[in-house]
Each structure stands twice: as structure tokens, then as C-alpha cells.
Fold:
Amino acid sequence: MRVASLKRPAASRDRLLVALSVLLVLLVLFMEHLAPVFRTLFPELNNPVYRRESFLQLTLDHLLLVLVSSLISVSVGVGAGLFVTRRSGREFEPMVSALAAIGQTFPPAAVLAIVVPLAGFGFVPTIVALTLYGLLPVVQNTIAGLGTVPPTTLEAARGIGMTQSQILRRVELPMAMRVIIAGVRVSVIINIGTATIGATVGAQSLGTPIIAGLVGNNIAYVIQGAVLVGLLAIVSDLLFERLERRFTFGE
Amino acid sequence: MTDGRAPEERRISPVIANRVLLTLLVAALLGAALLPFAAMAPNRLMSGQSVGVTTALLPWQWLSLAALAGVLALCALPRPFPARAARWVTLGAAPLWLLLVLYGLGDYATRALQDASSAARVSQGAAFWILVFCPVLMIVDAFQRLNIGLALRGLYTVGLGVVIGALFASGIFDALSIMREYANNRDTFTAEFLTHLRLVGLALGPALLVGLPLGLLARRRPTARGPLFGVLNFFQTIPSIALFALLVAPLSALGEALPWLKALGVGGIGAAPAIIALIMYSLLPVVRNTYAGFAGVPATTIEAARGMGMTSRQILWRVEVPLALPVILSGLRIVTVQAIGLTVVAALIGAGGLGAFIFQGLGQYAIDLVLLGAVPTIALAVVADFLLQILVVLSKPAGTR
Structure:
């Protein structure tokens, strides 16, 4: 869903990545020191900085939610994509593709709201919901990526005597890698956003100060949470963009 | 018998003709055997006592389900039905199964609540959802294998939708907890539903108005392309709730500073930040698809149009726009579905919409109130996707469909 072909010089993207990462780390570690700034901006607030949990703790919780769910999504998703593109599973390919396409029309927030209460509120149910949703772009892009490998290339690989597993590891996966990573990128970015909403179903994340601020009418909390999670998403996206560039052939 | 089939098909499945159908059937039967079909609770906030399929349904209902499962199992085998006939039988048996499951749940709720207290609630369990989704997927599978036209598929889907709608109208589901939540919130539901649609519409209008020219600009000026897509991708990357929330502060400041804006409804909380954020999200798919649509028009076609003596304006409106239209409309499809989903989150900043029920329900631990918000949102997204998909196909020039 995202545009990967940004034709700007790679160096400037890398500088942006470094700058934003440093900014993110500094804000996570030293948000308390910005208290005077928030006090001046919002003089009517008694507590201008969110202190119930440290921002480091919230960020780590957020990352844990995204990392665990993404790791499961990627391994299951790539596995499923591989299965339906092999001869033994090809019959399932149209159904799995249709499921991945229909599933992605479901709003992530609605999926979260349905799955989490069914499995009990909190951290693990949120991971289940994130994993389920995160699967779809990975499966879709794995199928699409493997589909871009030209039949003639496969024929040539077979012709030089490669076995099925060699063809997969040395030809198909490397050629499909860029598209697969693009799917992982979409999945991770959606999960970072959905994990934020996870704060409403009892999973502590960077969404927690946002929700606390919206409920308690404290705009400073809202800004602190939103800036951090926005930066986190952008830094992750830039990282994936860099990764995709490394797997681009022949351009 | 096997002679008519392609050699590859014969090699894969000597015993089973349709492994997808069989997998779905096994999943449905396992789900029905192991998971609760419904739950009965003393009131709307407590979690209920699980009830299995054979307990919840009357004998004739679950025996009919078992019989339909038998027919579907035969459809998955190479005998007795020939391949095409098996698919048509599936298209007949699967919806019957679906309707029977729906009817059975409503019927159970009505019977169970006859001699229970008025606060008692019956909700659907995990097995119910599995028994609903599996026949739907069987229908999808049969469609894919039959490879029949969009018109027939649409007709079939609409027909099934009408029958299910008639089931709802007959009041068979009224005893269910989610429908009781609906009955309690009937007026608010209609209002929030319309708010949801209005927010989506108010975001899509400006997004198209700005996005279409920007897409054309990206096509005509290659130097503008990189920065433009960079900025728009930036917007898309920011999590929805963060973007909504980040707009709250500046807009409330703006509302304070300019009272006439506040009088117009522009303030920190409410629809204004939601609509602005939705527009920002919608721009990337619109601009990207507009660009891709125009970029996909073959240079030779434009050359030919110029050769015929068409002016630039004529080429744009009579050649480029019609040829780019399907791709632009798929962009519209993406943003519509996306906006319907993101509007859920907008309820957190007080913009209303169906998300209001979701977050209200989550706050009260009232699951059926959550479902009252979530299920219609999903249905809305799927229906919008389906309709726009038809529009995309219709917009393709005849002969390339």
C-alpha cells in the first residue's frame, strides 16, 4: 500500500533516519526535562508531563507488542505464502489470496475490538489481534513476490541441476525478498498504529498517555504520546525503506 | 473419469477433488465440536455460560446441518458429482447451511430467554462465527473454481443478502444480546451510522479535489514527484490515533484565537481534526493511483491522438482520463475502505461515528455493545469494497474487462 520508490538520493534519507532516531531516543529518555516547555504551553495543567509510567517503559512495551506479533506474523505469513506457491499447496492459493484481500478491508481497530474481548483483555490478546491482522500483508506480498520470479529463470535454475530447495533459497527467495519486505513493512507500520489503540483494551503502550490525556482532558499527555509513537512509526518506516533498497536488483 | 482432467490435477489429488472445500468443512466441524456455539449470561456485563451446538440447536436443526455437511463432503470428493456439478451443489448447500446457522442462533435465543429473567442475555460464541465464515468461504471457493462472471456473482450475493436481511426483519434475532443493544440504542445507532458516513464523505471529497490534480502534477513534473510522495507517505506512516491527537492541540488553539472558526465548529475535540486527519491519510492513495493511472497510458496512444489533431485538453479528457480511470477508481476504493476504518478511531477524539459504540463498550466491558459498533463497520467496509470493485470493472474499456 505504501510507496517505496522515492527517487531522492539515498544519503539524505539516511541522514533523516539518523536524525529522527536520535530525536526519538532523546525524547524517550529525557521527556521529563521538557516539563518547563509544556508548563509554558499549557499553564492551566497541574501535571504537564505524563509520569505514571516512564516513557522508556511505555516505548519498550510498545516495541514488545509489535516485535512479538510481527515475528509470528512474518514466520507464519511467509510460511503460508510459500506453501500455497508450492505444487502441493497451489490449490489453496486463490482462497488464501482472497482471504488476505478481504481481511485487509476489515478495519484494524474493529478487529482489535472484537478479538481482544473474546480472548480476555490485556497484553496477550492484543498480540493475538496484532498477529492476525499483521499476517495479511505478509501473506499477500509473499505470494506476489514469488510470483514475480520469471518462469524462464526457474527453468534455467532447474536446467543447471539445482534441487527444489536450492531453487527456493538461492533464486526464488532472493528475487522475491524486496516485495516480501515491503509486505513486512506495511504489517509492522499497521501494528505500530494498532498497538497504540491497544491502550483501550488494557495493553500498555505509547497509546496509554494519549488515552489518559484524551480522557482526562490533558493535551500535554496526548502530545507526548503522539509525538513519540509518530516518530517511532516514521523511524521504522525509514529503516524498512533502507532494507528494501538493499534488496533491489537491476535498477 | 480421470481422463477428462489435466494430468497435473490427477497427480495432486487422486482421492480428493477439492481439498480447499474439505479443509473448510473439517475446520467448521472441529469448531462446532470443540467451541461454544452460544453463551447465556445473567446480565449484559457478566460473561456467560457456554452452550454447545447440539444443546443450543433443536435436533432437526443440527441434524440438517450434519446432512448439509455430508452433501458438502461429497462435493469435495471426485464421486458422485462431476467437478462442475459439485461446485453448483456447493453454491446451493453452503448458503442453506449459513441461513440455518443464523436461524438456529436466533431461535435458540428466543427459546432460552422465554423462562429467564428479563436481564438475561444470549450472545453468539466462537463456533457460531466459524460456522458462518466457513460456508461463506466455501461460496468464494466455488465462485473461483467456476470462474463465473461478475454479474452472476453480484446477483447471487445480493440475493443472499436479501434473504439474510429478511431474517433480520422477521425479528428472529431480536432476542440476541447484540440486537437488544441495538434496540436500546436505536436512535443513537442511526445517528452515529450517519455521522460515520458523513465523516468519510467529508474527508473523501476534499481528498479527491486536492489529490487528483496533485497526481496529474506528479505525472507532468517528475521533479515534484519525490518530495510529494515523501510528504504524503510521511502522513500515512503516522499512526491514526497520533495524527488525530496531534491535530487536537493546534485546532483548539486556533479555535480559541479565532472565535468565528470556533462558531463553525473548529475546535480541539470533535469532527474538525478527524476530517483533516482523514484527508491527510487519503491523499497518498489518491495521488499515487492518479499518477500511476496517467503513467500507464501508452505513449503511442497519446502520439496517435496528437496525430489525429487533438488538442492537449482533448487528449487529457478523451484519451488519458478514460484510460487512467480504472486505476484512479481503485485508489478511491483503497481510500474509502481505509477511511471507513480510520473513522472508528476518530471516536476517541469525540468525532462520533460507529467507533463511539466500540470504545463505550470497551469502557463498560459490554462486549455486545463493542460488536454493535464493530460488526456494522466491517460490513460497511466490505460492502463499500465490493461496490467500488464493481465500479472499477465497469470503468475498464470494453474488451479489456
Q: What stands out?
A: The mean pLDDT of chain A is 89. The CA atoms of residues 227 and 237 of chain A lie 15 Å apart. Chain A has ten helices and no strands.
